[in-house]
Design brief:
By secondary structure, the protein is α+β, with helices and mostly antiparallel strands. The protein is built from 6 helices and 8 strands.
């Protein structure tokens, strides 16, 4: 479900619109999103975390769907019982098998009543920390680097010059105004 805007004529066509909405993979293609670090908590295994993350994001799509699929090297069978539950400010909740999985930034995970360690780190501005909890228990912290697609960046600038607001449709709790 990609979006193609080719040439100045296409941008001029959208200039009469107030808002243009694109999928998150248009702004942040999977090849521009990297899992840089993964910390495991509370006796979970790396395999279980990757299984939950791969199935969870496979349910809602987006760049992390492909990132986790590549990280698992398709080593895990896909759950036939994965489904979207809900999302809110800075979090995503899915069911994988019988387990409730939450992916969130610090604000989102603590708003769900899950405690996280008080660890301060200096991060690059394009690196996000995403926490993951299983059944109300913290199981992972991931450092994920996002780079916006260069062509998309230029298109957004051109649309903004024509007073067109560009929105990104996403369930990824890391893709927010701070990242953009």
């Amino acid at each position: 479900d990609g979006v193609a805007i080719i040439g100045e004529e296409a941008i001029e066509e959208f200039a009469s619109s107030d808002v243009v909405v694109v999928n998150d993979t248009t702004a942040f293609p999977p090849y521009n999103v990297k899992l840089q670090n993964l910390d495991v908590y509370n006796d979970y295994t790396l395999e279980k975390i990757l299984y939950y993350a791969s199935n969870g994001f496979n349910t809602v799509g987006g760049p992390l769907s492909e990132v986790f699929e590549l990280a698992t090297n398709e080593a895990f069978t896909k759950s036939k019982r994965s489904r979207f539950v809900c999302s809110g400010r800075s979090y995503l909740c899915v069911k994988v098998d019988n387990d409730t999985i939450i992916f969130a930034d610090r604000y989102g995970i603590t708003s769900q009543g899950i405690d996280v360690p008080n660890e301060r780190e200096e991060l690059d501005e394009d690196v996000s920390i995403m926490y993951m909890a299983c059944n109300g228990k913290l199981c992972a912290r991931m450092h994920i680097k996002y780079e916006m697609d260069d062509d998309f960046t230029q298109t957004v600038k051109n649309l903004n010059r024509n007073d067109v607001c560009v929105g990104i449709r996403t369930f990824d709790p890391n893709i927010n105004n701070d990242l953009i």
